[in-house]
Amino acid sequence: MLKRLVRTGDTIVFDSLTRLGRNMNDTLEEFRYYEKHKVNLQFIKEPYINVNYTGESTNDVIQSAIQKATLTILSAFAEKERIDIKQRQAEGIALARKQGKRLGCPPVEITEEFTDAYKEWKSGSITAVGAMKKYGIKRSSFYKLAKQHEEKIKE
Fold this sequence. Notes:
By secondary structure, the protein is mostly helical. The protein has two domains: 2-98, Rossmann fold, CATH 3.40.50.1390; 112-154, no CATH class. It has helices at residues 2-5, 24-36, 61-98, 112-123, 128-135, 139-154; strands at 11-14, 40-43. α2 links the parallel β1 and β2. It starts with a helix and ends with a helix.
């Protein structure tokens, strides 16, 4: 979306290089795209890799080479950090499951309020939306509980 909106000479400000792409290749590809289209790039946390096409002397060959090397190194470290975070998260989830900890939201229980709402809804005296509003039950919870309640009745 952003690529369609920017034009030569525009400036995009990023918090960090990591906002440019999800991995090293994506980051480098995005950077090259904006560089090719002469879009100014500013990075708040890494100002030393800013790209400026407004006539300042940033087109120096040595500076450009240093900038590209720095960009490659930083994006590689960012990708490794994302991989490490993902791995630590998976390890933490596995450990929690092993310890028997419940993950996610607690299961919704059939309450007396729900039973009243269900009875009114099934009798036709109130719509499902009306029952949800009256008893403060969210739509997904209402239908999930209705299904559980009907299965419980069948048993």
